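This part of the workshop introduces the protein records we will be handling. An example says more than a description, so a record of this kind follows.
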Amino acid sequence: MSLNKEHTKITELHIQERTRFALRPVAKLVKATMFAGVAGSLAFSAHAQEAPAQNVAAEDDGIEIISVTGSRRTIQNQIAIKREATTVVDGLSADDIGDLPALSIGEALESITGAASHRENGGATEITIRGLGPFLSATHINGREATNGSGDRSVNFSQFPSELVKKIAIYKTQDASMIEGGVAGVIALETVQPLDFGKQRIQGEVKVNYNPDESNVDNSLQSDVGFRGTFSYVDQFEFDNGQAVGVSFGVQRQDISQPEAEYRSSSPTGSSLWACLNDPSNTNEGFYRSSAGDCEDQVSGSSNQGYQTAIDPDTGKAESDGTPYAWTGSSRSFRQNETSDERDAIFMAVQYQPSAVLDINLDAQISDRTQAEARHDLLFLQKRATPGITGPSLVTNQAGGILHWEGEERIESAGEQFSREENYRGYGLNVDYQATDNLNLNFDVSYSQTKREELQISNRGRTVDRPFFSWDMGEHIPHFTLTDFDVTDISNYTDSLRTRLDRENARENEVIGARVDFEYTLGGDVFTSIQGGVRTSELTFVQYGGNQGNGSRTEYTLDESVTPALDVLQSCQIDFPESGFLSSVSDGDILTHVDSDGNLVASGTGSSWATYDNECFSQALAASNGGAFAYPELEYENAGTIDVTEKTTSVYLMANYDTEMFGKYIRGNFGVRVVDTDVTSLGFRNTFEVVTNDDGSLTLVPGESLEQIEGGGGYTEVLPSFNLVVDYSEDILLRGGIYRGMSRPDPANLGYSRTFQTDEESAPTSLGDLFVGVNGSGNPNTQPLMSWNYDAAFEWYPNEDAIFAFGVYYKQFQGGFQQQTVLEDFIVGGQTVTLPITNSVTTDEESDLFGIETSITYRWDSGIGIKLGYNYADTDMEYEDSLYGDTYVTDLDGNTTQLTAGIVSPASVPGFSKHVLSSQLYYQIGDFDTAIIYKYRSEYFQPYTSNSTRLRYVDAVGVWEARASYKVNEHVRVKLEAINLFSQPKSQDYFTEGNLGEVNDYGPRLFAGVSFKF
């Protein structure tokens, strides 16, 4: 089944073509062209026919088959998809699987106008549409929902090999037949249907991966040269009784490294990054405190203080209003990584046509991926203020970001051994039945599952004393100067040796879906068909808990009576694994060692430090305690467990029209989709007993076991839609669309964790007096974010190689996010108790987003072509940080009170970028095909922490890519490809732009390969 077959019309011609299906060699080539067009229409609800091609190949019987390949063919397909669509859609299709012009699905999607990616490990992962975050989009594989291991609804596209995907599309407007869930748009992927493919094909490709930055790394997890091998087979078999069977099979093995060098500051979790007071007149706290200590603590008074945003009732302003501050974290550090990325993927399909009116498709996608990193960190603890030094020498920018720091503090040689395993399984069965000449029925069942688990060793050795050091911010990262301290001497880190073994973020996400659709063809001059259907699905998300909430931890500190610290460090010491560490983003040496007179000391100056083998270190500490070196187990019955079940039923009805009006041909559709969702969320809490005292008062006595608790919620939404295309002339189209969209809350935020607040001091005599409130997290009754969406576009198609498209769009969001107090019912001792709880909710606050989008594609006769896509958007939606932003609470009567007056400006929509640009310059002449690609994305807000309440900004970046190929003969092609060609780093700011939080330097990734097809 194609991606959106519900969009297409099963015509009599299509039925006849099935009947005439034959597998003789010449017929295969003829039908290849026909089925390519049919498959394109089925894939994108666009009725997209393959564009007339230009190069002529003569067959033995004199028939001329026209064919265009490479970059030009891909762009022609993009133009055809857009032109014939009834919705606003952009896509990529390939004549053969393996021909999508990108190294990953993420990179391929980035080439589509308005799409941009979030980069991790140097490659594209999550995709945003029109500058709106991944949580506002939906992803479908072969027309079905896809799962993920992140706890949200975005999809990590690096999980899927581009070589085994035949078509991708982004629907920017929607119609009633599409699965609900994307305010920004819907990303659709399609694998091959073997009978529709219409030809036998055996393909293979071998690529070697070389990363220049990896050549400087002594990688214990991976060799310098990586490997990526792909094989696929497609064939069809016709039987004498007119039945036909098609099979396709694809497999890929990837084994590469992903070099990454990092500068890091403490993350904005709320317990490690602070706005410390920078007031010379205040000697009780901050950087000018009178005694050495953490800058967020008071000399006399509270700890974890810092800048206080709570409203002072006497002034109506923040308690610390007007006081200067500077951002400082628990540490600033450098991280060197040894990396490995292994992925095995299998995509397969069987298509069976027992008759001209019945089409049965069975498909499967399997992907197993394991990422591993050996991390070596040098940490400078940073919260401590040295009296008379830190405050007077501190230099900051206007955002409170520190540019120069001096003081005495501990230094650590730390390390982590990290691995993440993620397994994806997707299966689907589709049956298409032409019941009568006018009635088509379609049945589909599907299953999607993702499992993820992370294992991590975290080690630490620190200095006994507090050496003096300072640092200055360079162009990209800080540079440290240390006095009388050699970071390369491992004997300097013998204090407080500790290891932690964590098993965490173990998640299972499943979606089971089934749907029945019909399309009835009409004979009218206006309405061509009516479509309708019903779909039901059940999503389950489980995150297993442990002694650390979302995981379990085993911790050991060194028992020096058994093993001296220096013995552990020396026996596990390794040479620093990388030369030229962070050289592309540093202004010379990142570490400078000087003596007390300021003279340079060679040892300890440079870009390296003392490191050790992480597993050796951890095993030694476990052995010194007589403990086992083993990762702890997780458990389902745990207070940290999240277990969410989301059941959805949706029905739709849609009319398609195609007619002439005022001398112009118009086409499109209108309809409505109704969606009903019920959420059930399970959690665990300690048991308790309500005890009646001698005086008649009540006391809550906690038990030692756990009990299961349950919460829930639901909603019903009506989603109308209307799409219009006006064929103004042979080469000009006018397009418009209106639809109401919805984006569901992330499954991880639908958990249900609750504990009671009690008041036993007032001698309560009733449950209503004993229980005064509830603490907890997760809101299973969180409502979806709704929006009305309007699109209008002008499109000019001068020829099959050219397009000029200009569109405007407007989205009115009907919802925001706010902390609000609501009432929940609890059963205690057989009685119902109604208690208030403050939680995150979706409000009815409205906000707007305006945008423009343009695409330009042109090819000259010389073989040079260009493709440009640009999206601009602006919005007034505001997203406040939960610690240092303005926060409010709404009580049970609906009264809203401001709790804090923040010091950071609100962010916008998560993932929102004002500017997104994709451009391509290609040259194709004869058998040589090459392209240069440039992609730009302006800064955007990427929420931090699992409940997405902290502000984190990813800075603007432009990335270059290149590819070239040469067709040796009709069977063999050689390829060269590169991403991040000029080694653009990724830079992030915490809480506010200007407060540098992290810089990731990846270096370029180079691939060279040879492919064959028969």
About this structure: The chain has nine helices and 53 strands. Residues 1-66 have pLDDT under 50 and may be disordered. The two ends are 25 Å apart (CA to CA).
